[in-house]
Amino acid sequence: MSRLDRQPPWPRRIGRGLLGLLAVGFLSVFLLLPLAVVFVEALRQGVHAYLSSIGQHEALAAIRLTLLVAVISVPLNVLFGVAAAWLMARFEFRGKALLGAFIDLPFSVSPVISGLVYVLLFGAQGWFGPWLGAHDIKIIFAVPGLVLATIFITLPFVARELIPLMQSQGSDEEEAARVLGAGGWQMFFRVTLPNIRWALLYGVLLCNARAMGEFGAVSVVSGHIRGLTTTMPLEVEMRYNEYDYVGAFAVATLLALLALLTLAIKTLLEWRYGDEIAAHAPGGH
Question: What pTM value is reported for the model?
Answer without folding.
Answer: 0.84
